[in-house]
Structure prediction request, 106 residues.
Amino acid sequence: MSPLVYYAHLAQDKLCNLLPYKHWQTLQSYSVNVGEMAAEFAWVFGAQEIACQTGQLHDLGKYSVAFNHRLPASPSADHSTAGAKIAKMLASGWVPKYKLWLSFLG
Prediction:
């Protein structure tokens, strides 16, 4: 039995027909891309590392059967709460300059 592959985004052709799975973006690839993009945006204020980690955590909830089943259809599935909860748990161990960031998580 092959391991379950999780996807972040499906792929469609110009007529909106669903393309085969080999064209879909995997969640692993997508999370790396989001983290890198977040780090680029955070460069101006020197927070590349935390931005990269936060970007990757944001989509952690997409690692679920519910989200994988949602992709070909339209109902939404929560994908950001799981990462936010983990970020909040980890934030208590981060250096003081990130305490302000923690306060925004509630």
Summary: Helices lie at 27-42, 48-58, 65-70, 81-91, 99-105. The CA atoms of residues 7 and 26 lie 4 Å apart. The mean pLDDT is 78. Residues 27-42 form the longest helix (16 residues).
